[in-house]
Write a structure and sequence with these properties.
Blueprint lengths: L2 H17 L11 E2 L8 E4 L4 H4 L3 H15 L3 E7 L2 E6 L1 H12 L13 E5 L11 H19 L3 E8 L4 H13 L5 H4 L3 H25 L4 H7 L1 H14 L3 H25 L5 E4 H4 L4 H10 L3 E2 L5 E4 L7 E5 L7 H15 L3 E9 L3 H13 L8 E6 L2 E2 L15 H18 L8 H21 L7 E2 L13 H20 L17 H23 L2 H21 L8 H24 L9
Parallel strand pairs: 5-6, 5-11, 6-7, 11-12, 13-14
Antiparallel strand pairs: 1-2, 2-4, 3-4, 8-9, 9-10
The protein binds one RNA strand of 77 nucleotides through β1, α15, β14, α18 and α19.
RNA sequence: GGUCCAGUAGCUCAACUGGAUAGAGCAACAGCCUUCUAAGCUGUAGGUUCCAGGUUCGAGUCCUGGCUGGAUCACCA
């Protein structure tokens, strides 16, 4: 039974019968009643005064009376100005709860046979992953699991930026200063080792540039003429010519990086179904240029370069092929998008999880695809997210202010360990169990912290203040789950089942119980909302509200002290439903929940 | 300069897509552990929602114009 829908259906009937309107339930919406008023659902009558031709109070009164008389689930109503507040009967709440508790898959829909692809992570291979990548990965992964919960077949993908000048820089520096170092010989994680040489390159490069500037060159000239940069450019040329030695080194160093990344991804708990490598795809899209020219969508300039004019759409001219015939980033993205839709013809959406610094790029990309006549272009979506800033501003690798992903995850676990030990919470845990808990809590805090903010907004991370464990945090939710788990263990010991009988009648509900059931009935709507907005923050907010409300109940209402067996049974069952929902929601976020903490 | 995004309590964030007196957490202060885990709960204090207009029964939310911060506009990726 869907209370929300039943109410809207009846309201539509009331409007139609009382005022001769022609309104469908779907066009109506209910909102939660503000807590200073009595009721759960509120219907705003202001928009319907034109139809009723009455005062707001009278209109609300008529609808309210209609509902109360004809609908069992409406216990009572009250009207304040244009707001009709509806109270739902406990019987209806219990029925609604019953259908939730008996649905093992509450929140998960069966497969719908539809397919989407979500691309995320997509790192460069010249340096380790950092805090920004964490936000990217957690966002992309979470959006994927949310769509999976809705029944979609989700292809989790990343395109690894394994070629280009950046990796050549690391290669040049490794040759010059590496003395044959390898991850094995140094014990350094592969991505860290390669990153070290990238930094070495930049250092040498800066020194050369400033020397050249001192000798009279402009900055621009100096950056082009610095000897080490010339070496990197030469390296790239050799790579493109597939010169054997260069290619072998490139493969070796990338392999180091991948092994390092694997460890990091594994720690993060994110996975991929499909890996694309830029070295395989960087030439794709060149073919499409001719097609675009034939269609008259693109045009060629005298020097042979190919462009598209988007000024009519409020954008600029955009280059698609250089005069020397080589492709640019945009060309490549056009090509790979087309290839993906060829690979998966039933793909309904293609979601790119990429920072908002590339908003313009994706506007242009999608627009070009549309102009080229691909109807699926409408299914492309840029999941654009804001940067993670430090109190000092942007993270700068050159200034050494980058927050490393591995380090941060380790620190979070250390902090979790500290907190747990301070609180003396691990009685009876063996070492492995304790380690597992620290990891759950530390990572949970980190993931929750990064996901609770609306993706579009930039967010601040203050390493000094470190991530909280109280209040609106991952550990708070985990803690709520652990407490309920303790209750459920006790219930099992005393022989109380977790799932109450259909006919069970706990009698009058506590206000907190009603509120929690209301939230439980909202779960699927919120999942839909999160998917539609590509916003895991909708889920974090929901679970937080649920946990918070449950904790109020926990504080005020005794379960095992309850004499009435039906009530006791209901409360156990009710707690179980909350735990299950918390667990599901956290699962979307990639956060595990502990049975004890 | 053009375009896009953001601006809400001291700090970090919400506000169900235009609804009631803008809510949480952190930090501060005051309470609650002999009773299911105090990583919890309750209370106090904290606001000209950047500014100025407009639209309407109603605006943090929509429109216009400013201000501030960020991004972007390369034959870079």
């Amino acid at each position: 039974m869907n209370i929300d829908f039943s109410l809207r259906k009846q309201i539509a009937l009331a409007l139609n019968e009382s005022f001769g309107a022609d309104i469908t339930p779907d066009s109506l919406s209910l909102q939660p009643t503000r807590k200073e008023f009595t009721g759960t659902y509120t219907f705003v009558t202001f928009p319907f005064l034109k139809i009723s031709k009455m005062k707001p109070e009278e209109t609300g009164e008529i609808i309210g009376k209609y509902l109360k008389t004809d609908l069992e689930i409406v216990k009572d109503y009250n009207v304040v100005k244009g707001f009709l507040n509806l109270q739902v009967s406990d019987r209806a709440w219990i029925e609604a709860f019953s259908s939730i508790i008996h649905n093992e898959n509450h929140g998960f829909r069966p497969s719908n046979g539809r397919r989407i692809m979500v691309e995320y992570s997509s790192p460069n291979t010249n340096k380790p992953l950092h805090l920004g990548h964490l936000r990217n990965n957690f966002l992309g992964f979470t959006v994927s699991t949310i769509y999976e919960a809705l029944g979609y077949d989700v292809v989790k993908a990343q395109i690894i930026n394994d070629r280009g000048i950046h990796i050549c820089k690391s290669m040049v520096a490794w040759i010059k200063y590496g003395y044959g170092e390898t991850p094995e010989s140094t014990g350094v994680k592969g991505d860290k080792l390669v990153g070290k040489y990238y930094v070495a390159f930049e250092k040498q490069f800066r020194e050369e540039v400033s020397a050249l500037v001192n000798s009279g060159l402009t900055m621009e000239e100096a950056e082009k003429k610095a000897p080490i940069m010339l070496e990197a450019i030469e390296m790239l040329r050799k790579w493109e010519a597939r010169e054997a030695e260069t290619y072998a080194l490139w493969e070796t160093m990338n392999k180091w990086v991948y092994r390092g990344f694997e460890i990091t991804y594994d720690h993060m708990g994110v996975t991929f179904d499909k890996l694309y490598y830029e070295s395989d795809t960087y030439l794709s899209g060149k073919k499409i240029v001719q097609a675009g020219l034939d269609k008259g969508v693109f045009f060629k300039k005298e020097d042979g370069s190919v462009w598209i004019d988007l000024s009519a759409d409020g954008l600029d001219e955009k280059l698609l092929l250089r005069s020397d015939g080589t492709a640019v980033y945009m060309t490549q993205d056009i090509g790979t998008a087309i290839e993906r839709f060829m690979e998966f013809p039933d793909l309904e959406k293609l979601v790119y999880t990429v920072g908002n610094e590339q908003d313009y790029h994706f506007n242009v990309l999608f627009l070009i695809l549309k102009k080229l006549g691909y109807s699926w272009a409408d299914g492309c979506h840029h999941l654009s997210y804001g940067m993670v800033d430090l109190p000092s501003g942007k993270m700068k690798s050159r200034e050494g202010t980058v927050v490393d992903a591995d380090d941060l995850m380790d620190e979070m676990e250390q902090t979790a360990k500290q907190h747990t030990q301070d609180l003396g919470k691990i009685e009876g845990f063996n070492e492995a169990q304790a380690a597992k808990l620290y990891r759950m809590v530390g990572l949970g805090a980190l993931k929750y912290f990064l996901l609770k903010v609306d993706p579009r907004k930039r967010m601040l991370f203050n390493p000094e203040e470190s991530i909280q464990f109280q209040g609106n945090t991952g550990p708070f939710i985990q803690y709520t789950y652990a407490r309920i788990s303790a209750l459920l263990r006790r219930a099992k010991e005393t022989g109380i089942g977790l799932i109450m009988n259909e006919e069970a009648s706990p009698g009058e509900l506590h206000a907190h119980e009603r509120e929690v059931i209301y939230l439980l009935t909202q779960f699927e709507d919120r999942i839909n909302e999160a998917a539609g907005e590509y916003s895991p923050a909708v889920i974090t907010q929901y679970i937080y509200d649920l946990a918070k409300e449950y904790n109020k109940f926990y504080q005020e209402v005794s379960i095992f002290g309850e004499q009435d067996e039906a009530k006791k049974q209901f409360r156990v069952s009710f707690s179980y439903a909350v735990a299950r929902t918390i667990k599901s929601g956290m699962e979307f976020l990639g956060i595990e929940v502990p049975e004890r903490m």
